[in-house]
Amino acid sequence: MRDKSYIWISFIVLIFGIWAVPKIVKKFEKSDLLLIGAAPEFELIDQNQKKITNKNYEGKVYVLEFFFANCPTICPIMNQNMLKLQEEFYGNLKFGIASITIDPLRDTPEALKRHAEELGVKLPFWHMMTGDSKYIFELSNKFNLYAGANPEAPGGFEHSGLFALIDKEGNIRCRKDENGNPIVYYDGTADEGIEMIKEDIKLLLGE
């Protein structure tokens, strides 16, 4: 009887082990999100007058945008949607936000500090960054996120309302659309885009 009990216990442990191992391995698998390529490197100054580079985001999933504080059109919507991401992932030190101004003459570190406070930025790794105007426009081109000066545009600038999603290894990632094509970037002005990026941030945090 004792030998039979031992055999049954061993059998149960074996079956449980076979069932559990795939679940443990699954946790460390890559998600199905597409890899677009390495995000461009950058070096800028944030609202706390600290030098911030892409290396500050190593090991973190982060969302990157180009904006400006005095934008009268889409930026306020983008700001509110970034706040939704802050609320969703607040307390997770593996998540961050990179907001890069395209109006560095007005958006000094001091101005960005005021803007961050007015907006309600609390996330430790939400850096609002400024720098040389030419450098920033070249950086936006490298990301393929349009930004440019236009005296006839509201606020004097035009820019994309898209968000880039970057994984812990510094790669731009995205999901596929309904036709199986990469969306590349997420619409930072639409509720649908924010819900999609929330879901995909969670996937990347789990990698």
Automatic annotation (TrEMBL):
Keywords: Copper, Disulfide bond, Membrane, Metal-binding, Transmembrane, Transmembrane helix. Cu cation binds at residues 71, 75, 159. The chain crosses the membrane at residues 6-25. GO terms for molecular function: metal ion binding. It comes from the Bacteria. The keyword Metal-binding applies. InterPro entries: SCO1/SenC, Thioredoxin-like_sf, Thioredoxin_domain. Residues 33-202 form the Thioredoxin domain. Belongs to the SCO1/2 family. This is Protein SCO1/2. Disulfide bonds join 71-75. It comes from Myroides indicus.
